[in-house]
Amino acid sequence: MIHPVAVIGAGPYGLSSAAHLRARGLPVRVFGEPMVSWRSHMPEGMILKSVPSASNIDAPQRGHDLVDYCDAAGVRRLVTDEDLVSAEVFVRYGDWFQQRLVPALERVRVVSVDRRGTEGFELKLDSGELFTARAVVVASGLSGLEHVPREFAAAAPDGPSPTGPLSHSAQHHDLSRFSGKELIVVGAGQSALETAALAAEAGASVRVVARGRDRVRFGVPPWEQPRLRPATPFGNAWSLYALTYYPHRYRQLPPGLRHYLVKRVLGPLGAWWLRERFEGKVAVREVAAVRRITVAGGAPVVQVGTLGGRREELTADHVVAATGYRVDLAAMPFLGDGLRTRLAASRGTPRLGPGYVSSVPGLYFTGMLGGSSYGPVMRFVCGTEFASPRLAAHLAARHG
Ligand SMILES: Cc1cc2nc3c(=O)[nH]c(=O)nc-3n(C[C@H](O)[C@H](O)[C@H](O)COP(=O)(O)OP(=O)(O)OC[C@H]3O[C@@H](n4cnc5c(N)ncnc54)[C@H](O)[C@@H]3O)c2cc1C
């Protein structure tokens, strides 16, 4: 019996990895909801921060870039750094990519993965099916990794929820629910600033609370980028060039530096085009820290330490924690105990070798799950260009 390779995830990384594996002639089964993070867990009306040339899902053959989709769909070509890509167009691009290159996608969840003797891995699907895979690629992306700081927990003892006092930004697609309401958005990254601008445009009264060393800042427009520094999808800078085009060296950096860079490089910073939609429409409160969020009379109370060292309470109808995502193997319940105990990890993230393989032969991680080994580029769609061909080549050489 020839066992297939299982790919868990149908976002940009899962689709790109699967397309590369199929092109190498490997039998592949791919699981997940296509582009679900983009379709359901980002706000309606969102625009990508990444420029069109950095928004391609890497494919093994030409003709599958964003601009190819625009031509095929007969929509305006998105090519220059000044062309803005809407999440709506990006989702349709992902669907088009999937239909062409990963047509047999299975829209079911993987409930568990564990070792199966020397044969490979045993997977259980939520359809009830059990099957054996020769290798597994985990591309489960943002799912389940939403981060809400511990200090916020008292406001959501049963977990954050859009209908309670506190939610996570990933829980919102339609921000018109806040029309006429007072909203606090905690965070200073693109997700916080864009959520705030969209909610204000939908009729909410919005305040952004930026913590600690985070300041509300916006990027430099393409025509003002420094010309004597090398161009990258994230702006012109030597440091970004190294991190974008030489991610294989990243694994050799000391662990502390790797974890720091993957968190801090490329953010928090609003996109250049967001500034005019934000300034004057959204209030900003920069504070030393958010100490705690509690609830009084059903509404959230945000206790902050001010920059002047005082304590203050901020109130609103609802708080959105735009506090990002954190890779944590413990938050991936489908990984069986047999695997978890054998996986080499560093601060909760898998330690990967060449070709994105983990310490368990045949088990691969890609996308942001590979960030602490391959750097911040793995947090973005353009990282598929580096990751997918290498992962597929490594896997095919050992399990082909
Ligand atoms: C608000 C916001 C804005 C962003 N803007 C940009 C941008 O402008 N440019 C950019 O490059 N990046 C951006 N990003 C980052 C971007 O989301 C990621 O780079 C990209 O989506 C990662 O793709 P992925 O395939 O790894 O994961 P995801 O897109 O999160 O896909 C995960 C997939 O895994 C599947 N899955 C999860 N668990 C299971 C399971 N147990 N069984 C089966 N399937 C499962 C899901 O169904 C889904 O198909 C943004 C992120 C956020 C939150």
SSE blueprint:
Elements: E1 5-8, H1 12-23, E2 28-31, H2 36-40, H3 66-73, H4 87-101, E3 110-116, E4 120-125, E5 130-133, E6 135-138, E7 166-168, E8 182-186, H5 190-201, E9 205-211, H6 238-245, H7 255-264, H8 275-278, E10 283-287, E11 289-296, E12 299-305, E13 311-315, E14 318-321, H9 337-340, E15 345-346, E16 349-350, E17 363-365, H10 371-374, H11 384-399
The site of flavin-adenine dinucleotide has 30 residues, from helix 1 and helix 2.
Care to describe what's here?
The protein contains 11 helices and 17 strands. The chain is an alpha/beta fold and 400 residues long. Helix 1 packs parallel to helix 4 and helix 1 crosses helix 11. A 5-stranded parallel β-sheet has the order 7-14-8-9-10, covered by helices on one side. Strands 2-1-6-17 form a 4-stranded parallel β-sheet, covered by helices on one side. It has a 3-stranded antiparallel β-sheet with strand order 3-4-5. Flavin-adenine dinucleotide binds next to helix 1 and helix 2.
Please state the structural category.
Answer: alpha/beta
Tally of contiguous helical segments = 11
Percentage beta strand:
15-25%
Give the H and E element order.
EHEHHHEEEEEEHEHHHEEEEEHEEEHH
Please tell me what the overall shape is.
globular
Radius of gyration: 21 Å
**Ligand roster:** flavin-adenine dinucleotide
Strand order of the largest sheet: 7-14-8-9-10
First-residue to last-residue Cα separation: 14 Å
Mean pLDDT: 94
Total strand segments: 17
Point out poorly predicted stretches.
Answer: none
Share of helix, binned = 10-25%
Oligomer: single chain
Largest sheet: 5 strands, parallel
